[in-house]
Amino acid sequence: MNKALDQFKQLEGKKLDKMPSKAGNWLAGTLLEIEEDRIKVSYTVSSEMCNPAKILHGGVASLMMDDVIGMGNFATGSEYLMTSINLNVDFLSSAHNGEKIEVSAKLVRSGANLNHWDAVITKESGRIVAKASSNMIKTHVTLSDLGF
């Protein structure tokens, strides 16, 4: 039984604004679906998330994908904290204030010490806003040491 996945399953359809990540809470996404190897979260682009050109800021888009990958990785059930060692992002189109977007992430490879994830941000039209890949490495810190 995967306790972490079970905890996340209870949050499907709910706003993610009471999570351990304060940055993720600020994003205030809604968990659409989660399994051990994939996750999907929706967001509405706010003016605070935009750059001076009034489009989704690249740093915020990167934060969204990193946060979703982190939640997805947590739901894999590892007993150890895993942390990002890289995040490679391609920005492909824009999203504007008020637009709804989805961030989907998929576990590509799960290893003894390293998990590789791919993520994509899409608009309702299906147009890709950005995509990313990330490697998560196992630390020596157990999740139970952190109170999880």
From TrEMBL:
Q: Where is the Thioesterase domain?
A: 55-129
Q: Name one Pfam family in it.
A: 4HBT
**Top-level taxon of origin:** Bacteria
Gene Ontology terms for molecular function: 1,4-dihydroxy-2-naphthoyl-CoA thioesterase activity
GO CC terms, sorted: cytosol
Sorted keywords for this record are: Hydrolase
**What InterPro entries does the record point to?**
HotDog_dom_sf, PAAI_dom, Thioestr_dom
Q: Does the keyword Hydrolase apply?
A: yes
**Could you tell me which PANTHER family the record lists for this protein?**
1,4-DIHYDROXY-2-NAPHTHOYL-COA THIOESTERASE 1 (PTHR43240)
Q: Which NCBIfam families match?
A: unchar_dom_1
What the record says about family reads: Belongs to the thioesterase PaaI family.
Q: What is this protein called?
A: Uncharacterized protein (TIGR00369 family)
Organism encoding this protein: Algoriphagus yeomjeoni
